[in-house]
Structures are given as structure tokens and as C-alpha cells.
Write a structure and sequence with these properties.
The complex is a heterodimer of chains A (about 625) and B (about 260). Chain A is an alpha+beta fold. In chain A, about 40% of the residues lie in helices and about 25% in strands. Chain A folds into 4 domains: about 300 residues, Nucleotidyltransferase, domain 5; about 80 residues, Actin, Chain A, domain 4 (Alpha-Beta Complex); about 110 residues, Substrate Binding Domain Of DNAk, Chain A, domain 1 (Sandwich); about 110 residues, Up-down Bundle (Substrate Binding Domain Of Dnak, Chain:A, Domain 2), CATH 1.20.1270. In chain A, strands 1, 2, 3, 4, 11 and 12 form a 6-stranded mixed β-sheet that branches. Chain A has a 5-stranded mixed β-sheet with strand order 18-13-14-15-19, sandwiched between helices. In chain A, strands 22-21-25-26-30 form a 5-stranded antiparallel β-sheet, with no helix packed on it. In chain A, α3 packs across α4, α5 packs across α11 and α12 packs antiparallel against α14. Chain B has 2 domains: about 90 residues, Helix Hairpins; about 120 residues. Chain B is about 55% helix and about 0% strand. Chain B is built from 7 helices and 2 strands, in the order ββααααααα. The longest helix of chain B is centred in the C-terminal third of the chain and has 36 residues. Classes of the chains: A alpha+beta (about 625), B mainly alpha (about 260). The interface between A and B is large, with 50 and 35 residues.
């Protein structure tokens, strides 16, 4: 049976976990590292790199790399102007349409970039299962987590990314609820839990009631654009201002070097009272930059951002009808909750010390693995009941939104709305679906527009078209409609406002298969060249031996000429891209030099036995 | 919810999409093949959650039944099931969540009871836009005072003073609200007591009374929301802007207008 995993697809670092015989565990690489940096780059050879390698490339050629792409998932080009200005890569696309990110000479949509990261995680897990001696080590299904506050478009984009990576997405679940699953594992817990999740790019707060293994989310709130990245940016701006003053304008390379140094300093400040930001030296910065920063200074600068997280917390408490003292346990999730100021703020608000027994970077992936296991095994000890974070509505006359499913409704959930016609014999009605809490459509998130067609011609106002909205357990919307007087089902063409259509996903999937084949071919070619070069080097080494004139005496007539010819042919082949020819010529040269190799080997052995060092020969 | 949104027509039997047998509408699983049943046109949240049609309910019992049924219906447990069962699980879970949400909230619970007893909902159009006769006096006084306060705010009056006036304006409305909550409580108890004993006419009267009080209470809540918005404007020191604060109190339901056809 193929394998199932849980994936935490994060703004800065992603990871994969599974439930093994000993319970849920994250999957690490050979060096014990669980985190795959969510960075994607294109090498000079056109190959895609993900993770640490891409991170290295980000420092030397920032124009070939992209990071923090999660911030762009399910969003339009008009939404992200401000953020795009801070990032080194090109962000484009048509207004009102799906966003495109340029790296080197190629363009990708955010789900495609995320798919590269997912593919890397899939690959890592497969390698692990193979090493474990699993017969069927293929990973083809996954539960992927998203911030609780992600809207429909962002969730759909994440599901599309999974599909593009060749994964069947069993379920999209929210990060804080996943974390609560991981925490609730061993304990026969009951009570009210608050999960405070501050990651690299997003903030979520979820309040849950746990009883008899049912994890019921009472309310959730958050900010999809608040996280550790924003803390980094404050430090980066500080350093860039200093550098600017000393006559070093911010080049993309310099910004990346500063970013790396700022992140290191930030991490140190969670452990110690003072840290040094060190940048360079590098071509862009001949003399190294150094600056001391104290924890107090850092906390003062991030203070307003940390305070911003308290507003969603209050909102969620109000929605759940709870007071801070009603919360029995507080759980911290996300790397940014290592910051002492964040811990203090949360402890102060709830009046209790938060839990952090599990690694805040890993707990979400563990929870996702647990959920994947529940889905596959059908085990019923635990059940997660999540909510939709935002109200769903439709635009009515005057651009006002009529809410159909309210925020914090347990999912799956349904809503209905009746439509009718305005003119006699009208056969179609336009519907605009929105998500958000504001009253005007212009202030809410446009999810989709569709047209109800095939309404039987009747006098105006007579048709009664029931449109049924279904939010499934992933928090993703689908729509169906029916004319009640005639019972005729309506056809609906949903055009996602900022997402990909199914056809686009299909096309990308086909392209990615083609690319995968091309990538595979490229790797084989590289392998063949490497092997050929090894044989060429070995042969030339024989020919350059000091005792070659003596060796030549032992060769058969014409043999040296044959070796020479084979050598030249292989050198020519290596310069081309015909892998099979390279392999044939490699084989031919190997064959031609077999006798030569035997002779030199024997001489070397004799010399060694005679007390000479082989290396001296 | 508009009056004609869910035709509540109790159906006696639903057909099991797995084995084709007929099952009583209150069953969740087919008595014949034990598979999860597709959702018929059900409509009774009380019966669905295994509770009597009463307005005073044991919230812990409600919660327990909700959890038990969630464990039986949830799509998580139908991942490997047939597509009919998966669909049935999705429908039944959604319905369970809707039912639980409605019954948890006392006002929504009354609203639902009115609906299944065949009364027009207390939130229907035309009814919330009209001032309930019992509230005419209060609404008139509040409208005048709010107009005054807005004018004063626009001419730069002291926010602290305005806040005091808003507080004072709020007090009679708050009292009305408390009165209505108490009445709803009383009528709910009355319904529960009469449910099995009283004549249909008597029960009908109680339901009508519940509807009237609920309607007024909804109206009062809208008034309070209007005052809250004004408090926020005063607090932020905003000049009157946009339509949200200048709208007449008479039409607080304008935002929940039914969508109309375009094109």
C-alpha cells in the first residue's frame, strides 16, 4: 500500500511527517534536519532546486530564486503590490487574474512554486520509506495544512499545488487545529484550549473545546500577513539604513546577505540578551558590517507587531463567548513563538504559562500526519471539527453583501439563497460570491462569479432559483442551483476570481510531467557526462605516465591508435547532448583501454612490490 | 432566511441509495443494510438531534448528541466508502452542524420551532422594516435623539458629552430588551408545558405570541447595533460619512435585503 503523509507547507520552512509503528514522527534528512526551506531556485542549467540548495543560490543570484511564496497563494496582482516591493523577484499577471512570479527567464503561478516544495517533501518521504525497506514506498496522498484564517481562494490554491506535485490531497486542515491534534494525542484531555500560532508569515488564533476525543473549534481568527518575516524586515531595514549612510546602496545580493544576518541575530536574541548582526565582507560590501543589538531594543521595535496579534485573540474570544480565564490550556505553535516577548504577551493575556512541550516548528506536521492516519485507517478515537474562518455571502443590489454562511460555522456547512428574475423571460442570472465580514462587496474578497443559466422563461419574479452553497470539510466551497417551480437543475460555470481553473491545473499538470521527463533526461545526461569524463581522465593519466614508452612496447600493433581514436570520439561526444552516443563511446573507450589498463596495473604492482610508492610512478 | 427558502414538507420515507430499501425519515442509517442514508427533505432539527420539540433544552444533552452523531456522520470516516455514502455523509454532517448551531442559540431555536410549526419566520422581509407597534414610542424618541447627536457631532461637540447622551438614549432600549428576554423565557416555558396537553388553538396562540416578541426583540437588537455604530463614530471622532450612519433607524434590515436578479 502506498504511503500517506502530513505536510506543513510553511512560509519559511516546510516539513513532512507520517504515523509509523511508534506513532507520529517527522521525516528528517540524512543529517537529521526536518526543515526544508520553502525556497525555490532555477540553476544555470535550467534545473529546479528546492530547500537548502535554493537558499544558497538566493545569496549569490537572488534573481534566480523565490521565497515566501505562501504569501501570494490565492491572491491577485493588485493585492500584493506592497509586499512584492520588498521581495527580489518579479511579480506580475493581469489585474483581477491569477498572479505570476518571474524567476530567471521563466514564469510560475504561486501554486506551481509551492508544488516544487511539495514535490521535494514527497521525494524526501519516499527516500525515507525506501531506506526503511518498505516495499511500496511511493507517497501519493497527503494532508496539507494551511493557516486557519486562509480564505477559500488560498485553500484552493494550496490544494492545486498538491495536485501539481502529484499528490492526492486527502484534506486541507488548519495549522492550529492540526497542532491541537498532535498535543491531544496521549492525554485523555478535556477542556478549552487556545492555540496561538505565529509562524513565518501568518498569525492564527484558534479556540477549541476538547471532549471525548472530539476537537471542536469554537472560533478562529488571525492575520494572514503577520509573522516572523515582518520581524526580519524591521531588522533588515535598520541595517540597510546604516549601510545606505555609509555609501552602500541596497543591491539584491546585499539585501539577501543582510536578510540572512538579520534572521540569525533574531534567532540568537531568543536565547541570549544581546546579539551581533554581521554582514559580509563581500564584493558588494568590502568591509564587514557589525552592529550590536540587545533583546530590549529588538522587542521595542517588534512590540507593535506583537500587540497586533492580540486583536484577533480578543475577536475569537468574543465570537466563542469566552473570557481569557475560561481557557484551560494555551498552546504555542510556530517558530516566532520562541521569542520571549511573544511568550510573555500570551501568558499575560491568558494569565497562564503556555505549553510548548512539542517543538513549535514540528507540531503542525505531526498533527497533519495524525489526521492523514485517521482518514486512511478510519480510526474513530479522534475527530476534528473545524470552522470556516470567514463569512460567505453574495452581492445583492447596491453592492451590499448578504451573508449566507457565517464565520465560525462548523464545517461542513451549507447555506441557501433564493434568486429570481428581474425581467420577463429572463433566462440567466449573474451571481457574485464573496468572503469576508464587511458589509460592502467592494471590501470583501471576491471568490467567484457565475451565471445561472437555463431558467425557464417566465414572467419576472416568478422563477424561484435555489442556490445551494456547500463548504466541505476542507473549507472549500462548491455551488449548486435548482429552479424550484420546474425542478430544473441549473448549469453553473464558476470562474474563480484569483485561482486557477480546473483546465489550467490540468494543463500545468501535463506540462509538469513533460518537464519532469525533461528534468529526468537532463539528470541522466549529466550522469553520463560525469562518467565519460572520469574515463577520459583515467585514460589520459595512463598516457601521461613517465614509463609510457616502456608500456607502449607491450601494446599490440595498432592498439595505441585505437585508444587515441576512441578517446577523441568520446571527447567529441561529451561536448554534445546525445546521451546514448556518450554512453556508447564511454563503453568503447573502456573496451579499447582494457589491455592498456592491465599493463599499467601490473607495472604498478611490480613497482610497489619493489618498494617504490605507487604515487611516485 | 427568506420565507420561501426551505419548503418544509415532512416526508414519511427516504430511499436508501445503497440497497434501495425505504427507511423512516428520522433514521440516519438504513435499517436494512446499515449504510448511511441520504438526507431527505427533513426539516426538524429537534428530531434530527434526538430531542423533544421543546424550547427549554438540556444543553449538555444537545452537545453529547451532537458529538455522538458527528462521530457517526463525519466525512473523515467515509474516505474509503462508496460515492453515495460519501455524499450522504457530507449532507448529513452539514445538516447536523446547521441543526446544532440553530438549537444552541435560544432565539434561533424559537425561530426554527416557528418554522416547523408552520408560522412565517420572525425575520422575513417587510416585517423588520416596519416598526413593531409596541415599540413606536421608543423608536420615535431614539430617532430624534440620534439625529440630534449626529448634528452635534458634525458641529464638533465634545465626544464625552455625546457619549453620555448615547448612554442615556440606550437605557430605555436596554430595558425593553430585558423585558423581551424575560417574555421569551416565559412563553418558552409555556410552550413546553402545553406541548402535549393543550388544544391546537391554544398552542397556536402561544406560538403567535412567541413570534411577536421575537420579532420585537430582533428589532431592538438592530436598534442597539445602530447605537453601537454611533458610539464608535463618536469615539473615533469621525465626521458623518457614508450611508452607514445616516441611514434611518427605521430600516436596520436594509443590509439583509434579498438579492435580486441582474443582467
Amino acid at each position: 500500500m502506498s504511503k500517506v503523509v502530513g505536510i506543513d507547507l510553511c512560509t519559511t520552512n516546510s516539513l513532512v511527517a507520517h504515523v509509523g509503528p511508534k506513532g507520529p514522527e517527522v521525516i528528517r534528512d540524512a543529517s537529521g534536519d526536518a526543515l526544508v526551506p520553502s525556497v525555490v531556485s532555477i540553476g544555470g542549467d535550467g534545473r529546479i532546486y528546492v530547500g537548502r540548495e535554493a537558499q544558497r543560490q538566493l545569496l549569490v543570484s537572488p534573481e534566480r530564486a523565490v521565497y515566501s511564496v505562501k504569501r501570494f497563494m490565492g491572491r491577485g496582482v493588485d493585492d500584493v503590490q506592497e509586499e512584492a516591493a520588498l521581495l527580489p523577484f518579479r511579480v506580475g499577471g493581469e489585474p483581477g487574474g491569477v498572479l505570476r512570479i518571474g524567476i530567471a527567464d521563466r514564469e510560475f503561478t504561486p501554486p506551481e512554486i509551492s508544488a516544487f516544495v511539495l514535490r521535494e517533501l514527497k521525494h524526501r518521504a519516499e527516500q525515507y520509506f525506501q531506506e526503511q525497506g518498505e516495499f511500496d514506498f511511493e507517497v501519493d496522498r497527503a494532508v496539507i495544512t494551511v493557516p486557519a484564517y486562509f480564505n477559500d481562494a488560498q485553500r484552493t490554491a494550496t490544494r492545486d499545488a498538491g495536485r501539481l506535485a502529484g499528490l492526492e490531497v486527502l484534506r486541507i486542515i488548519s495549522e492550529p487545529t492540526a497542532a491541537s491534534l498532535a498535543y491531544g494525542l496521549d492525554k485523555k484531555n478535556r477542556g478549552t484550549i487556545a492555540v496561538y500560532d505565529l509562524g513565518g508569515g501568518t498569525f492564527d488564533i484558534s479556540l477549541l473545546k476538547v471532549e471525548d476525543g472530539v476537537f471542536e473549534v469554537l472560533a478562529t481568527s488571525g492575520d494572514t500577513h503577520l509573522g516572523g518575516d515582518d520581524f526580519d524586515n524591521l531588522l533588515i531595514q535598520l541595517v540597510l539604513r546604516d549601510l545606505e549612510l555609509s555609501g552602500h546602496p541596497a543591491t539584491p545580493e546585499l539585501v539577501q546577505a543582510v536578510r540572512k544576518a538579520a534572521i540569525e541575530a533574531k534567532l540568537e536574541l531568543s536565547e541570549q540578551e544581546e546579539a551581533e548582526i554581521r554582514v559580509g565582507p563581500s564584493p558588494a560590501l568590502p568591509a564587514a558590517y557589525r552592529r550590536q543589538i540587545t533583546r530590549a531594543e529588538f522587542e521595542e521595535s517588534i512590540g507593535p507587531l506583537v500587540s497586533r496579534t492580540m486583536e484577533p485573540v480578543r475577536q475569537a474570544l468574543a465570537d466563542a463567548g469566552l473570557l481569557p480565564r475560561d481557557i484551560d490550556e494555551v498552546v504555542l505553535v510556530g517558530g516566532s513563538t520562541r521569542i520571549p516577548l511573544v511568550r510573555r504577551s500570551v501568558a499575560d493575556l491568558f494569565g497562564r504559562t503556555p505549553h510548548s512541550d512539542l517543538n513549535p516548528d514540528e507540531v503542525v506536521a505531526l498533527g497533519a500526519a495524525v489526521q492523514a492516519d485517521i482518514l486512511i485507517s478510519g480510526r474513530r478515537e479522534m475527530l476534528l471539527l473545524d470552522v470556516t474562518p470567514l463569512s460567505l455571502g453574495i452581492e445583492t443590489m447596491g453592492g451590499v453583501v448578504s451573508k449566507i454562511i457565517l464565520r465560525n460555522s462548523t464545517i461542513p456547512a451549507t447555506g441557501r439563497e433564493m434568486f429570481t428574475t428581474g425581467v420577463d423571460s429572463q433566462t440567466a442570472v449573474d451571481v457574485h460570491v464573496l468572503q469576508g465580514e464587511r458589509e460592502l462587496a467592494a471590501d470583501c474578497r471576491s471568490l467567484a462569479r457565475f451565471k445561472l443559466r437555463g431558467i425557464p422563461p417566465m414572467p419576472a419574479g416568478l422563477p424561484r432559483i435555489e442556490v445551494r452553497f456547500q463548504i466541505d470539510a476542507n473549507g472549500i466551497l462548491s455551488v449548486a442551483a435548482r429552479e424550484l417551480r420546474t425542478g430544473i437543475e441549473q448549469t453553473i460555470e464558476v470562474k474563480p476570481s484569483y485561482g486557477l481553473t480546473d483546465q489550467e491545473v490540468e494543463r500545468m499538470l501535463i506540462e509538469s510531467f513533460e518537464h519532469a521527463e525533461a528534468d529526468f533526461e537532463a539528470r541522466l545526461l549529466i550522469d553520463a557526462r560525469n562518467e565519460a569524463e572520469a574515463v577520459v581522465t583515467a585514460t589520459e593519466k595512463h598516457l601521461r605516465r613517465r614509463d609510457f614508452s616502456e608500456i607502449e612496447q607491450e601494446l599490440l600493433p595498432g592498439e595505441l591508435q585505437r585508444v587515441d581514436e576512441a578517446l577523441q570520439s568520446l571527447k567529441e561526444a561529451v561536448n554534445g547532448t546525445d546521451r546514448e552516443r556518450i554512453q556508447q563511446q564511454t563503453h568503447a573507450l573502456n573496451h579499447a583501454t582494457q589491455h592498456l589498463a592491465e599493463i599499467t596495473m601490473n607495472r604498478s604492482i611490480r613497482e610497489a612490490l619493489a618498494g617504490k610508492n605507487v604515487k611516485d610512478v | 432566511m427568506s420565507p420561501d427558502s426551505i419548503p418544509i414538507r415532512p416526508v414519511d420515507k427516504v430511499e436508501c441509495r445503497t440497497c434501495g430499501a425505504g427507511a423512516p425519515v428520522d433514521e440516519h442509517f438504513c435499517p436494512n443494510c446499515s449504510r448511511i442514508l441520504a438526507l431527505g427533505r427533513h426539516g426538524d432539527f429537534f428530531a434530527f438531534l434526538g430531542l423533544p420539540r421543546q424550547l427549554t433544552i438540556d444543553l449538555q444533552q444537545l452537545e453529547r448528541n451532537f458529538r455522538d452523531l458527528s462521530r457517526k456522520f463525519h466525512p473523515d470516516y467515509y474516505y474509503n466508502a462508496s460515492s453515495q455514502e460519501r455524499l450522504a455523509s457530507l449532507e448529513r454532517s452539514s445538516y447536523l452542524n446547521d441543526a446544532y448551531r440553530a438549537l444552541k442559540n435560544p432565539a434561533a431555536r424559537i425561530e426554527h420551532l416557528l418554522a416547523i410549526e408552520g408560522l412565517p419566520p420572525a425575520q422575513s422581509e417587510g416585517s423588520t422594516t416596519k416598526v413593531p407597534p409596541a415599540l413606536l414610542e421608543e423608536v420615535f424618541a431614539l430617532n430624534e435623539e440620534l439625529d440630534d447627536i449626529r448634528d452635534a457631532r458634525e458641529s464638533g461637540a465634545d465626544p464625552a458629552g455625546l457619549r453620555q447622551r448615547l448612554d442615556a438614549a440606550r437605557q430605555p432600549i436596554d430595558r425593553k430588551r430585558d423585558e423581551h428576554e424575560a417574555q421569551l423565557h416565559e412563553l418558552s416555558a409555556k410552550w413546553d408545558a402545553e406541548r402535549d396537553t393543550a388544544s391546537n388553538d391554544q398552542k397556536r396562540q402561544t406560538l403567535q405570541a412567541l413570534r411577536t416578541v421575537l420579532l420585537e426583540r430582533n428589532y431592538i437588537n438592530n436598534l442597539l447595533a445602530t447605537i453601537e455604530r454611533e458610539v464608535a463614530s463618536v469615539g473615533a471622532g469621525l465626521p458623518t460619512s457614508g450611508s452607514s450612519t445616516t441611514g434611518q433607524i427605521g430600516d436596520p434590515a436594509a443590509a439583509s435585503q434579498k438579492p435580486e436578479a441582474r443582467e
